[in-house]
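1st attempt posting a full record on here, be nice pls
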Amino acid sequence: MDAALLRGRTVGLGLEELRVVVHSEVGIDVAALLLTEGGLVRSDDDLVFHNYPTAPGVVLDAEAATLVVTPEAIPADIDVVRIVLTLTDPFARFPNHEPPRVDVVGAEGVLLSTTVPSDVGPVPTITLLDLIRAKDGWHARPVVRGYRGGFAEAVTTHGIVVDTPPTAPEPPRGPALAPVLLAGDDVELRREGGDQLTFVKLGLGWDPIKVQGRWSGTRDAPIDLDASALVFAGRDLIDVAFFAQLSTRDGTIRHFGDNLTGDGDGDDEIISVDLTRIPSYVTAVVFTITSYAGHTFENVKNAFWRLVDGNDTELSRSSLSAGGPHTGMLVAKLHREQGIWKLQALGRPIEANHPVAAVEQIRPWL
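the predicted structure (as tokens):
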């Protein structure tokens, strides 16, 4: 028989014991939801996953990524067993890998159906397959849906109560003396007394995130953000200071070193700018922040950028923790108007994991 199970197609499985086997090139947690006719669980006991691998008629072998389903043992008021797949890498998304394959195997190893998801968005969790009770036994039907909020969103959608104990807000990192700049704000770089500034530094800070280990407690998961300064003459990129080139060729802009994890207090990366020595033909210096490994800003924790003067007095700051499915940010632009340096907050999300990849996305803001 043709075992390939396409969306909208069902295949009969009968009443025999079944094995639902997940094949994947990357780590995947397999789960099942036992649903009533209304599409909801009766209680939290109707969720089968690695912490609770058994429910009436459904047993999970997590190591083998296999669910063993005994139809005659499934309670009479359960109409659907829904298969849920979650990538074990908290930063991974389904389109970034070969899609998994889910086989339903009957007695004596007979392959009854094969399902491979298609058109899955950038999500970490999907529902893929329903085992449905019918008058003539059980049937399999694809039911592909993605959940940006991961496993917790998938199960709460079906009536599971997920306990999330309140946590105290974390204190802000670094001094909070300066006003927060909103996207589009444009301010002159002057001291309180009115003198123009001659030297500024951009500081970038963030933290590793806490992730739940599969078999243990939480652990730190590093994220590698990179601060860069791109130098423009008109619309042309003429120089850059970033992790692989720590100084512009004229030495006026310097990067103080690459932080690969976000570990540590205060500024994790710093870029200094000597405003007095920047050549007259330079029209703008644009600060970008990019995610080297392609982690999106949805995963970034406690992130901020700030601008300080030569005495480390904070002039402005802005948060980067609002999140979003992007891998970079245009944070601010230094530019001259009638010989006076000004700072404009940009706050624009971009797709880039390297500063040079951001150039075309910067040009509309020059």
